[in-house]
Amino acid sequence: MAETSTTQTSAPATSIPAGARIGHVHLKVADIDRAVWFYHDVLGFDLLFKMGSAAFLSAGGYHHHIGLNTWESKGGQPPAQGTTGLYHFAINYPERRDLAVALKRLLDHGWSIDGASDHGTHEAIYLHDPDFNGIELACDRDPSYWTVMRGATLETMGSMRKPLDFDGLWAELGEPDQNGYLPVLRTFK
């Protein structure tokens, strides 16, 4: 097999249109009912329909944001460490409060998170689903804050990452932390 180079030698003639977006993700899962429970009950997506070994879920009536199936994966195991595959996909919430609601919903269902960061351009909470597919729950900041990213290098991008302000995020809910989640969340650096 010939080795391919990842070095770009010339700029493309045209860029992808600025309005392009990723519309949905379709995941191979081991157990369709368990996956539907997670994406419907824990994350709050609407179940559009389930047909045997596949299910489709949405937010706000979109044809589907999440597709799930066991066509090639029923009873399967997550990919082994050190193999290629999905690192994570992001669910972007329209408002910071929506991200706070999503975090509380996860915790209220007993689901833990794997980490969290303030990337400057957006705030992010990382977790995995029951099949160990990585998920980023995020809320973008206003694009006027993104200028720091223009001209950034790998070295400078790392210095822009800060711990997520969980106290400030929780304040978006307008309610006290009655279940004592914040002390544990503050340990994520």
Verbal overview:
There is one protein chain. This protein has 189 residues and is of the alpha/beta class. The chain folds into 2 domains: 54 residues, 2,3-Dihydroxybiphenyl 1,2-Dioxygenase, domain 1, CATH 3.10.180; 104 residues, 2-Layer Sandwich (Signal recognition particle alu RNA binding heterodimer, srp9/1). The chain contains 5 helices and 8 strands; from the N terminus they run βαββββαβββααα. The strands form 2 sheets. It has a 4-stranded mixed beta sheet with strand order 1-4-3-2, covered by helices on one side. β7 and β8 form a beta hairpin. It starts with 24 loop residues before the first strand and ends with a helix. The mean pLDDT is 90.
What is the topological layout?
Blueprint: E1 25-28, H1 32-42, E2 46-51, E3 54-58, E4 66-69, E5 89-92, H2 96-108, E6 115-118, E7 122-128, E8 134-140, H3 154-160, H4 166-171, H5 182-185
Parallel strand pairs: 1-4, 5-8
Antiparallel strand pairs: 2-3, 3-4, 6-7, 7-8
Going by helix content, strand content and strand pairing, the class is alpha/beta
**Order of strands, widest sheet:** 1-4-3-2
Provide the number of structural domains: 2
Low-confidence stretches: none
Helical content stands at 10-25%
Distance between the termini: 42 Å
**Separate helix tally:** 5
Question: Over the alpha carbons, how many angstroms does the gyration radius reach?
Answer: 19 Å
Q: How many strands, which pairing sense, and closed or not: the largest β-sheet?
A: 4 strands, mixed
Query: For this structure, what is the CATH class of the largest domain?
Result: Alpha Beta
The H-and-E topology, N to C, reads as: EHEEEEHEEEHHH
Q: At CATH's second level, what is the architecture of the largest domain? A: 2-Layer Sandwich
Strand content: 15-25%
